[in-house]
Structures are given as C-alpha cells and as structure tokens.
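Please check what follows.
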Amino acid sequence: MERFIVGKRISLHAFTASDVTEDSPYASWLNDLTLDYHTERNFFPHSLESLKAFVAEAEASDSTLLLGIYVNESGDHVGNISLKNIDFQHRSAEIAYLLGNKEYAGRGIATEAVRMLTCFGFTKLSLDRIEAGSNAANVGSVRVLEKAGFRQEGVQRGKLLLNNERQDVVLFGALRSEWMAEHGESALQLFIHSPVASL
C-alpha cells in the first residue's frame, strides 16, 4: 500500500473498501465494546459488509478523507483517522480518530496522528478551522485533543444517551493562524516529507 502522509514513526494511508477483509482488524475494533464504551459506535454490531459499505461511501465522498494509522517499524494497522464534513467554502472540517490496537495504547500514537492530519489539513488542504468533539467521560480522547493543541470551546450538556445515562460532549477547535504559530513547527518535525515542502 502506498503511503499517503509519511511520518517518522507512523504514517497515514488512504483507506479503501479493499482494505476491509476478514483478516483485517478493523471489524473487531468496532465490535469491541471496551473500545466503544464511550461512543455511539456501540449502538449497532458491524459486519464486514456494513464496514465495506461505510468505507466505500467515505472513499467516494468529496467531503471525507479516511486514513488508516500504520506504525512504520512493524507495519501494523493500529487505528483510523479522518477529516469529515470538509467544507471548502468555509475552509473547515471535523477530525475523528480511533486507536483500535490496544497494544499501542498509551504511546502517544493517536495524538501524533491528530497532529499530523491537522497540520496536513491546514497546509495542504488550506483549511482555516478544524473541530472535534469527545464524550466528556472519555478522558483519553479529551486528553488526545488537548495534547494535540486543540482548545476547548464549549460543552453540550446531556448531548448523548450512552449506557442509559445522559452524557456531555466537550467541543474542541483549532484555527490555522493560532495552531500553526503555536504547534506548526513541532508538528512538521513528525513528518519525513513535509506537507508544506511544495508550497
């Protein structure tokens, strides 16, 4: 598989329906309730066919960029990350991510992937704003966004009904002018091939 965004430790590859096979770990991640306890993904079981359809829809969309997160040293596919609701008129998008391989938890990989894709979005896609939301109870996900340089912008109280409880969603955002000034230089150090090399 050709690398799409090449980093020193991880790379983000274009993820297609052909990558969703019986041998791929993707389906097992989405059906692992210990991973999805804090998300809406645990509402429905996922089959190979439903995942192929989801990925094919993302692949065909002009407003979604779905990428797999791969560890360079091992070649392991450890998670996915996406820019969705890409709005080129208003130069904005939403970032979402899943670290599915538990063996790689706690190593900063999700944070690194968010930083790389945010930098890519601001430089190559000319976005001005990238936003995200996380269940407030998902402390790990909230911490990823904070460490990646996103600023908390608000809380949607009782937004979700999960595990028979109303739960808040914490809203985060990053503006290109602020984020690149504060985090751009360090984010660029994560890449082997700079996303601004041709700019």
About this structure: The longest strand covers residues 151-162. The radius of gyration is 16 Å. The CA atoms of residues 66 and 82 lie 4 Å apart. Residues 109-123 form the longest helix (15 residues).
